[in-house]
């Protein structure tokens, strides 16, 4: 037998399944979905029409934190949902409890953890890590090997360059007080963050801010302003021709 498909799974018209695919109970595949070789679709996962899933992807798995982890797994975590026309790369891992919009691209070896809300036409590049309880607005692009820490929020049309690092814990795991302060950065609509930049916990990158490559941002930025350096400091206004239409 080259595939394992649970009898309760609902398979739409024109679906193509690769060799050694596993589809667990209650999975729903819309019409014209393609699932690559050795992919695993965990129980209850809903895949929108026309979505393409590459080889060895793991879709809708339950989180399983370390015994010493502070993360608590909700036993009622809802099933993963992926909107129509999306593309999920090879060896990507998507956790249960998240929701992806339409025409989302998740690159090879990227992962998205539980309770994330991802808008339409979002690009999550190769090797990107999106931790739990992250919000990503529509038309945002996150490039190769960026790290989006838990409790971050990226608004619409944000650009995150390769290797960007976001953080959420100023105490770095020490003291009980840290639990009251853990929060990732907020990146407002149209902001751009250059390669290798570091965003500290809880800061806000204002709308249309431009963060230069390698900058370390330790405090909130002003709208439509270029920042560079360690620590990042304002340099000049963002040119008007680079601004998004209102």
Automatic annotation (TrEMBL):
Pfam families: Hexapep, Hexapep_2. GO terms for molecular function: transferase activity. It comes from the Bacteria. InterPro entries: Hexapep, Hexapep_transf_CS, Trans_hexapeptide_repeat, Trimer_LpxA-like_sf. Keywords: Repeat, Transferase. CDD domains: LbH_WxcM_N_like. This is Transferase family hexapeptide repeat protein. It comes from Desmospora activa DSM 45169.
